[in-house]
Structure formats: C-alpha cells, structure tokens
Write a structure and sequence with these properties.
The protein is an alpha/beta fold. Helices cover about 35% and strands about 20% of the residues. The strands form five sheets. The protein has a ten-stranded mixed sheet with strand order 9-7-5-2-10-1-11-15-19-20, with helices on both faces. Strands 14, 16, 17 and 18 form a four-stranded mixed sheet that branches. A two-stranded antiparallel sheet has the order 3-4. It binds inosinic acid. The site of inosinic acid (IMP) has 20 residues, from helix 5. Homodimer.
Length: about 425
C-alpha cells in the first residue's frame, strides 16, 4: 500500500529543521538547497525568525519570506502554519522588490495563515515586562497570535477579504483584549475602526499573493516538482519538544511541516537537521553547556552571535550531543549539517556534552522534570582543537585532522550521517562530506 502510494508520487519533499535552539545557520543551507528544488515553503513561526543569507557582497535578512526568493524562478510559499504580521511582510516584499527580485510572480501566501494584530504585539510586550517568569520573546506578538488561533478567536488571511465577517471577529477580539489591557496592565486599549481600516489596506496589498497553498503544494508534488519545507527557530524552541515554557508557540520540528504546509507525512522523503558546531541560545531558559564569561565573549565575537531579528547577544556554549541526539529522534533526521566549524578554530581543547548527571543519576534523554536542565550537570568529553584557520578550505579532506576527528566524534555521538560541514557565511565555504 505504502509502496503504491510512493510510486504515484513523483516530486521529492525535504524538510529542513534546526536541531538546537534556532540560529543554526539554516538560512545559508536553505539558500544552497534551493538550487535543486522548485518550491520552498515556510510552515511555522512568523517574523520572530531571521534567516541571513550572504550572496557575494550582499547580506539579506529575511523574517517571513522563504530565502528561496533569492533564486530566480523558485516559488515561495508562506504556509497556513505561519503567523503573519502584514506590516512586516510588506516591508520585506518592498525591500526585495527594490533589490530587483521578482516577488509578485513567485510569492504565495496561504489564505489560512493567521494574522498578527497590534494587540498581539502589545500583549506580548506587556507580559514580558510585567509578568513574572519572562520568556525573553522577540515581542513580535507571536505567542498571543497562536494563542488566539488555538482559542478559536484568531483572524486568518482570508477573513480580511470578507469585510463584515472580519469586522465582527475584530470587534469581539478588541473588546476582550481591551479589558485585559486596561484592567490587568493599566495600558491603553485599541480602536476597532483604526485597525479595521489599516488591515483592509493590507488585504488589498496582499490580494494578488493569497491562494490555496495546500492545493498548490500538493499538485506540485504530484506533478513531480520538488519541495523544500523550511523550519524556523529550532527543536528546543518547539512548543511540545522544547525547553517549555522557554519556547516559541509553534511546532518547529519536522512534524510541523505536515501541519503548517499541508503536506502529509507519507509525502516527506527526507528530513535534514542543521546544528552549529557549538550551541547558542537567545532569550531566557536553561542552557546546561553554557561557556564561562571569557570564552562566551570570544566565541560570540568570532561567531557574530547577535540575533538577526532583535540584535540581542546570544548565549554560547559547548556542543550538546544529548540535545542533538534527541533532536535527531524527535524529527526523524536523516542527515545533519554542521555549521560554523571555523568559529572553533582557535581553541586548544573542545568539550562535547555526552550525558547529564542529575541527583546522582546519568541521563541521555531529557525528562520533563521541572528544573532538570537548570540543575543537571553536563558530563563532558574533551577533544584536541586544531588551531588553524579552516575558513578558506574547500574540500572536507583538507580540514586539519583534529577538525575531522571532531566531526567524526559528533557523528558517532548523534548516530546520524553528516552531510555538510560549513566553515563560513558564503556559499563557497560549504564542504560536502556525506560521512555515513
Ligand atoms: P517568541 O517566538 O518571540 O515568542 O519568543 C520565544 C522564544 O523563542 C524566545 O526565547 C526567543 O528568543 C526565541 N526565538 C524566537 N524566534 C527565534 C529565532 O528565530 N531564533 C532564535 N530564537 C528565537
């Protein structure tokens, strides 16, 4: 049965996800992989993400539009699982148009994607400032928008085109949000008319991009076109599998592609996971392998570890093989891509976390015990560094022997094929290795 189904399907579907806390360098990989696909689809998150792509002298930071847009002829989809801040999306479209990129014929926006409103941003910000136990969000309104979606009061892209329906839903939402804003946060409320008129203008702007992306993608797959589903954030920011509650509000894991792009599980051929050669995290939440201050500063500077969306300094630490091995399992990752190996070039020794000790016991999985990751002690293995510049190397086998030993050890620990090692931002600094 399954074989029959597979035979009738012609186009290859690949899902690419981050296997740490986001910022793994997915933007560069998506850009490279896009050369061989017809469609690229975002399936979750919103403009909390920031995918950076460097092409020759130009740097592009994309928050909502798949980085595939930088490749002529590729169709880019913002799937139903994404939350869209119209203002941010318009800015991105206009920026790309100014750069001479054809967005109009190639960007498709799901009619079922939920829309972010100013009250979402406001609530996100106030919760961060006024509530105890802040998450360290990007304050882009992501959490409150997804909360409305799940509470069944959200407003979707298609709703904006039905004035009456849109107004009724907006009125109900604003009535509720204003009570919370005024009474709980002593903040000003919002006016229905103002937002209604503003968003009707956005709807007109988006009209030509909006369609049934689910049918579009599934027809494309049937016709033999290949699709790359690009995840934003990373496995440990996933609302189910991440370090809850310090997570984002969507499913950043591979299963999220089925929900957020409308591509069924049996259609997915391959899952790729991206990891940094070390670990970073932005925002609050536990981070067992975090560096001491001195090393943190050194690696942060060398790796330019500052958020591409908020500019916040990222915390940095050793590679955590427990996290990545579990990410491989959760996502069903077939192949791993290691980025930023060059950032470790100067270190004399490099540590890798292989297990955690918690209350006298050794763990190689991450239990749901509250405070586990905050309190556990990472158990390290130490490897010798290579202390040579790797950023100009063009072939995997030309890497210093200790760098190759490091990659091989990571391969053993996470028990998955390593497909690519990246040693810099540009497309040229990409070493294909396929270590099985
Ligand atoms: P939110 O997604 O803005 O609600 O933020 C929730 C958590 O996810 C915070 O810790 C953010 O710093 C983190 N986060 C959200 N988007 C990204 C991203 O693209 N890269 C890294 N961290 C992110």
């Amino acid at each position: 049965m399954r074989d029959d189904k597979r035979m009738s399907k012609k186009g290859k579907v690949t899902v690419l996800v981050g296997a740490q806390w986001g910022d793994e360098g997915k933007g560069k990989l998506i850009d490279i992989l896009t050369e061989n696909v017809d469609y690229v689809a975002r399936f979750q998150g919103g403009n909390n993400a920031g995918h950076t792509v460097v092409i020759e002298q130009d740097k592009y930071v994309l928050h909502l539009i798949p980085s595939g847009i930088l490749h002529a002829g590729k169709i880019c989809v913002i799937g139903n699982g994404v939350v869209i801040d119209p203002k941010a999306l318009i800015e991105e479209i206009e920026f790309l148009k100014e750069k001479g990129i054809d967005v109009e014929h190639r960007l498709k926006i799901s009619e079922k994607a939920h829309v972010i409103f100013p009250y979402h941003r406001k609530l996100d910000e106030l919760r961060e400032v006024k509530q105890k136990g802040r998450i360290g969000t990007t304050k882009k309104g992501i959490g409150p928008c997804y909360a409305d979606k799940v509470s069944r009061v959200g407003i979707r892209v298609a709703d904006l085109f039905d004035k009456e329906y849109f107004k009724t839903r907006l009125e109900a939402n604003i009535a509720e949000k204003n009570v919370i804003l005024k009474n709980l946060y002593a903040s000003e409320g919002f006016s229905v008319e103002e937002i209604f008129n503003e968003y009707l203008k956005y709807a007109e702007y988006f009209r030509k991009y909006v369609c049934d992306t689910i049918t579009l993608l599934n027809n494309a797959i049937r016709e033999g076109k290949s699709v790359l589903c690009e995840g934003a954030q990373g496995t440990y920011l996933d609302v189910d599998y991440g370090t809850y509650p310090f997570v984002t509000s969507s499913n950043a894991t591979a299963g999220g592609a089925c929900i957020g792009a409308g591509v069924g599980p049996s259609r997915i051929d391959e899952v790729l996971g991206v990891v940094k050669a070390y670990t970073t995290r932005v925002g609050e939440g536990p981070f067992p392998t975090m560096f001491n201050d001195e090393l943190m500063e050194k690696i942060r500077e060398k790796g330019a570890e500052f958020g591409s969306t908020t500019g916040r300094a990222r915390r940095c630490g050793w590679f955590d093989a427990v996290l990545v091995r579990n990410a491989v399992i959760i996502n069903g990752i077939d192949k791993v891509i290691i980025t930023k190996l060059d950032v470790l070039d100067e270190l004399a020794t490099i540590k890798v976390c292989v297990s955690y000790r918690y209350k006298g016991e050794i763990y190689t999985t991450i239990p749901g015990i509250p405070g586990f990751l905050e309190q556990c002690e990472p158990m390290y293995e130490e490897l010798s560094g290579w202390q040579r510049d790797t950023s100009k190397i063009q072939q995997y086998n030309d890497l210093p022997v200790n760098a190759r030993k490091y990659v091989s050890r990571l391969r053993e620990l996470i028990d998955t094929e390593i497909m690519i090692v990246s040693v810099g931002k540009s497309r040229k600094q990409t070493l294909i290795c396929n270590i099985k």
